[in-house]
Protein backbone atom coordinates (compact mmCIF):
# COMPACT_ATOMS: atom_id res chain seq x y z
CA UNK A 1 0.00 0.00 0.00
CA UNK A 2 1.14 3.52 -0.80
CA UNK A 3 0.29 6.28 1.66
CA UNK A 4 0.96 9.91 0.76
CA UNK A 5 0.44 12.36 3.61
CA UNK A 6 0.33 16.15 3.28
CA UNK A 7 2.91 16.22 0.49
CA UNK A 8 4.12 19.69 -0.53
CA UNK A 9 6.70 20.63 -3.16
CA UNK A 10 7.77 24.23 -3.83
CA UNK A 11 10.01 26.01 -6.32
CA UNK A 12 11.47 29.50 -6.19
CA UNK A 13 10.36 32.00 -8.81
CA UNK A 14 11.95 35.45 -8.64
CA UNK A 15 12.97 34.72 -5.06
CA UNK A 16 9.45 33.75 -4.02
CA UNK A 17 8.34 30.23 -3.07
CA UNK A 18 5.56 28.85 -5.26
CA UNK A 19 3.76 25.62 -4.42
CA UNK A 20 3.65 23.15 -7.30
CA UNK A 21 2.20 20.39 -5.13
CA UNK A 22 0.24 21.62 -2.11
CA UNK A 23 -0.70 19.47 0.88
CA UNK A 24 -1.66 16.38 -1.14
CA UNK A 25 -2.80 13.21 0.65
CA UNK A 26 -4.02 9.96 -0.89
CA UNK A 27 -3.54 6.20 -0.81
CA UNK A 28 -3.14 3.45 -3.40
CA UNK A 29 -4.14 -0.04 -2.35
CA UNK A 30 -2.19 -3.14 -3.37
CA UNK A 31 -3.23 -4.15 -6.89
CA UNK A 32 -5.09 -0.89 -7.48
CA UNK A 33 -4.82 1.36 -10.53
CA UNK A 34 -5.05 5.07 -9.81
CA UNK A 35 -5.21 7.37 -12.83
CA UNK A 36 -4.24 11.00 -12.23
CA UNK A 37 -5.60 13.57 -14.64
CA UNK A 38 -6.39 17.28 -14.79
CA UNK A 39 -5.35 20.45 -16.64
CA UNK A 40 -1.83 20.83 -18.01
CA UNK A 41 0.49 22.56 -15.55
CA UNK A 42 -1.58 21.43 -12.58
CA UNK A 43 1.23 19.54 -10.85
CA UNK A 44 0.66 15.94 -12.00
CA UNK A 45 4.15 15.26 -13.34
CA UNK A 46 5.75 17.10 -10.43
CA UNK A 47 3.86 14.86 -8.01
CA UNK A 48 5.12 11.78 -9.86
CA UNK A 49 8.71 13.03 -9.70
CA UNK A 50 8.40 13.69 -5.97
CA UNK A 51 7.08 10.16 -5.43
CA UNK A 52 10.05 8.72 -7.34
CA UNK A 53 12.57 10.96 -5.56
CA UNK A 54 13.58 12.92 -8.66
CA UNK A 55 12.36 16.03 -6.87
CA UNK A 56 12.56 16.49 -3.10
CA UNK A 57 9.39 17.28 -1.17
CA UNK A 58 9.43 20.29 1.16
CA UNK A 59 7.15 18.51 3.62
CA UNK A 60 4.95 15.48 4.02
CA UNK A 61 5.40 11.72 4.11
CA UNK A 62 5.55 8.89 1.57
CA UNK A 63 5.01 5.43 3.05
CA UNK A 64 5.34 2.27 0.96
CA UNK A 65 4.09 -0.97 2.53
CA UNK A 66 4.59 0.51 5.98
CA UNK A 67 8.11 1.78 5.26
CA UNK A 68 8.65 5.55 5.42
CA UNK A 69 10.65 6.32 2.26
CA UNK A 70 10.30 10.12 2.52
CA UNK A 71 14.05 10.64 3.01
CA UNK A 72 15.12 8.08 0.38
CA UNK A 73 16.85 9.20 -2.80
CA UNK A 74 15.86 7.89 -6.22
CA UNK A 75 18.15 4.82 -6.01
CA UNK A 76 16.82 3.76 -2.63
CA UNK A 77 13.23 4.24 -3.78
CA UNK A 78 13.90 2.07 -6.80
CA UNK A 79 15.35 -0.60 -4.50
CA UNK A 80 12.29 -0.26 -2.27
CA UNK A 81 10.13 -1.26 -5.25
CA UNK A 82 9.15 1.83 -7.26
CA UNK A 83 9.37 1.81 -11.06
CA UNK A 84 9.04 5.00 -13.08
CA UNK A 85 8.58 5.83 -16.77
CA UNK A 86 9.48 9.40 -17.73
CA UNK A 87 7.21 11.50 -19.90
CA UNK A 88 10.35 12.47 -21.85
CA UNK A 89 12.80 9.55 -21.55
CA UNK A 90 16.55 10.21 -21.28
CA UNK A 91 18.93 8.88 -23.93
CA UNK A 92 22.19 6.99 -23.39
CA UNK A 93 24.71 7.08 -26.23
CA UNK A 94 26.84 3.95 -26.42
CA UNK A 95 24.34 1.71 -24.61
CA UNK A 96 22.48 -0.90 -26.63
CA UNK A 97 18.79 -1.62 -26.18
CA UNK A 98 19.65 -5.15 -25.07
CA UNK A 99 21.99 -3.85 -22.36
CA UNK A 100 19.55 -1.13 -21.33
CA UNK A 101 16.75 -3.61 -20.66
CA UNK A 102 19.10 -5.99 -18.84
CA UNK A 103 20.10 -3.17 -16.50
CA UNK A 104 16.46 -2.35 -15.92
CA UNK A 105 15.68 -5.99 -15.15
CA UNK A 106 18.62 -6.26 -12.77
CA UNK A 107 20.00 -9.35 -14.51
CA UNK A 108 21.33 -10.42 -17.92
CA UNK A 109 18.45 -11.08 -20.28
CA UNK A 110 18.42 -13.52 -23.18
CA UNK A 111 17.68 -12.24 -26.66
CA UNK A 112 14.30 -13.97 -26.53
CA UNK A 113 13.42 -12.23 -23.25
CA UNK A 114 14.39 -8.84 -24.66
CA UNK A 115 12.42 -9.47 -27.84
CA UNK A 116 9.35 -10.42 -25.83
CA UNK A 117 9.56 -7.20 -23.81
CA UNK A 118 10.02 -5.08 -26.91
CA UNK A 119 7.17 -6.79 -28.73
CA UNK A 120 4.92 -6.06 -25.77
CA UNK A 121 5.35 -2.32 -26.31
CA UNK A 122 5.03 -2.40 -30.09
CA UNK A 123 8.68 -2.47 -31.18
CA UNK A 124 9.86 -4.79 -33.96
CA UNK A 125 12.10 -6.68 -31.60
CA UNK A 126 15.22 -8.17 -33.20
CA UNK A 127 15.88 -5.07 -35.29
CA UNK A 128 16.46 -3.13 -32.06
CA UNK A 129 18.63 -5.43 -29.95
CA UNK A 130 21.93 -3.79 -30.95
CA UNK A 131 20.54 -0.30 -31.55
CA UNK A 132 21.88 2.39 -29.24
CA UNK A 133 19.58 4.26 -26.88
CA UNK A 134 20.52 7.57 -28.46
CA UNK A 135 19.38 10.24 -30.89
CA UNK A 136 18.88 7.72 -33.70
CA UNK A 137 15.67 6.57 -31.97
CA UNK A 138 12.54 8.63 -32.47
CA UNK A 139 10.60 10.10 -29.58
CA UNK A 140 7.95 7.41 -29.93
CA UNK A 141 10.55 4.63 -29.96
CA UNK A 142 12.18 6.05 -26.85
CA UNK A 143 8.82 6.27 -25.11
CA UNK A 144 7.99 2.64 -25.81
CA UNK A 145 11.46 1.54 -24.74
CA UNK A 146 11.15 3.52 -21.51
CA UNK A 147 7.90 1.75 -20.68
CA UNK A 148 9.55 -1.60 -21.43
CA UNK A 149 12.22 -0.85 -18.80
CA UNK A 150 9.53 -0.56 -16.13
CA UNK A 151 7.83 -3.74 -17.29
CA UNK A 152 11.18 -5.58 -17.27
CA UNK A 153 11.10 -6.03 -13.51
CA UNK A 154 8.46 -6.66 -10.87
CA UNK A 155 7.75 -3.64 -8.66
CA UNK A 156 5.51 -2.80 -5.75
CA UNK A 157 4.49 0.46 -7.45
CA UNK A 158 4.76 1.46 -11.12
CA UNK A 159 4.38 5.11 -12.14
CA UNK A 160 3.77 5.98 -15.80
CA UNK A 161 3.79 9.67 -16.76
CA UNK A 162 1.56 10.12 -19.82
CA UNK A 163 2.43 6.78 -21.46
CA UNK A 164 0.34 7.68 -24.51
CA UNK A 165 2.47 10.71 -25.41
CA UNK A 166 4.43 10.42 -28.65
CA UNK A 167 3.26 6.98 -29.78
CA UNK A 168 1.01 5.85 -32.61
CA UNK A 169 -2.46 4.39 -32.14
CA UNK A 170 -1.36 0.78 -32.80
CA UNK A 171 1.41 0.94 -30.19
CA UNK A 172 -0.95 2.68 -27.78
CA UNK A 173 -3.38 -0.22 -28.06
CA UNK A 174 -0.58 -2.66 -27.25
CA UNK A 175 0.39 -0.62 -24.19
CA UNK A 176 -3.20 -0.55 -22.98
CA UNK A 177 -3.24 -4.34 -23.26
CA UNK A 178 -0.06 -4.50 -21.17
CA UNK A 179 -1.56 -2.30 -18.47
CA UNK A 180 -4.70 -4.42 -18.45
CA UNK A 181 -2.62 -7.60 -17.98
CA UNK A 182 -0.66 -6.07 -15.09
CA UNK A 183 -3.82 -4.77 -13.48
CA UNK A 184 -5.60 -8.10 -13.84
CA UNK A 185 -2.82 -9.88 -11.91
CA UNK A 186 -3.28 -7.43 -8.99
CA UNK A 187 0.39 -7.85 -8.05
CA UNK A 188 1.50 -4.23 -8.44
CA UNK A 189 0.10 -0.82 -7.65
CA UNK A 190 -0.23 1.37 -10.73
CA UNK A 191 -0.25 5.14 -11.00
CA UNK A 192 -0.88 6.41 -14.52
CA UNK A 193 -0.88 10.10 -15.40
CA UNK A 194 -3.03 10.59 -18.47
CA UNK A 195 -5.50 12.72 -20.39
CA UNK A 196 -6.51 9.79 -22.57
CA UNK A 197 -10.03 8.53 -22.02
CA UNK A 198 -9.19 4.90 -22.77
CA UNK A 199 -6.57 4.86 -20.01
CA UNK A 200 -8.78 6.74 -17.58
CA UNK A 201 -11.54 4.17 -18.11
CA UNK A 202 -9.18 1.41 -16.88
CA UNK A 203 -8.81 3.04 -13.47
CA UNK A 204 -10.16 1.75 -10.19
CA UNK A 205 -10.06 5.32 -8.92
CA UNK A 206 -9.44 8.67 -10.56
CA UNK A 207 -7.69 11.64 -8.99
CA UNK A 208 -8.01 15.10 -10.54
CA UNK A 209 -5.24 17.57 -9.72
CA UNK A 210 -5.58 21.26 -10.47
CA UNK A 211 -3.34 24.13 -9.32
CA UNK A 212 -1.25 21.71 -7.29
CA UNK A 213 -4.15 20.40 -5.22
CA UNK A 214 -6.49 17.45 -5.36
CA UNK A 215 -9.72 18.73 -6.83
CA UNK A 216 -11.49 15.39 -6.55
CA UNK A 217 -10.67 11.73 -5.97
CA UNK A 218 -12.93 8.74 -6.02
CA UNK A 219 -14.11 5.58 -7.79
CA UNK A 220 -14.11 5.73 -11.59
CA UNK A 221 -17.89 5.42 -11.82
CA UNK A 222 -18.30 8.52 -9.65
CA UNK A 223 -15.56 10.76 -11.10
CA UNK A 224 -15.53 9.91 -14.81
CA UNK A 225 -19.05 11.19 -15.69
CA UNK A 226 -18.16 14.64 -14.34
CA UNK A 227 -14.88 14.62 -16.29
CA UNK A 228 -16.63 13.77 -19.54
CA UNK A 229 -19.19 16.53 -18.95
CA UNK A 230 -16.47 19.13 -18.43
CA UNK A 231 -14.18 17.81 -21.17
CA UNK A 232 -10.66 17.62 -19.64
CA UNK A 233 -10.07 14.17 -21.14
CA UNK A 234 -9.00 13.31 -24.65
CA UNK A 235 -10.14 10.63 -27.08
CA UNK A 236 -7.44 11.35 -29.69
CA UNK A 237 -3.72 10.61 -29.69
CA UNK A 238 -2.51 14.21 -29.93
CA UNK A 239 -2.28 15.04 -26.21
UniProtKB/TrEMBL annotation:
Pfam families from the UniProt entry: ABC_tran
UniProt keyword Nucleotide-binding, yes or no: yes
Protein name: ATP-binding cassette domain-containing protein
Gene3D superfamilies, per the entry: P-loop containing nucleotide triphosphate hydrolases
GO terms assigned for molecular function: ATP binding
Keyword Nucleotide-binding: yes
Ranges for domain ABC transporter: 2-236
InterPro entries: AAA+_ATPase, ABC_transporter-like_ATP-bd, ABC_transporter-like_CS, Molybdenum_import_ModC, P-loop_NTPase
Naturally occurring in which organism (per UniProt): Dorea acetigenes
Keywords: ATP-binding, Nucleotide-binding
Amino acid sequence: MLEVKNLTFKVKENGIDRSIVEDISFTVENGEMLVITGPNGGGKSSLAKVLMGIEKADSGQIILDGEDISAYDIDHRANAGIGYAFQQPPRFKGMTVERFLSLAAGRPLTENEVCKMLSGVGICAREYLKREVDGTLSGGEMKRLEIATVLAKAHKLCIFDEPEAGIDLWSFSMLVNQFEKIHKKKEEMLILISHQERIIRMADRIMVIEDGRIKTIGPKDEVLPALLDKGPVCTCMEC
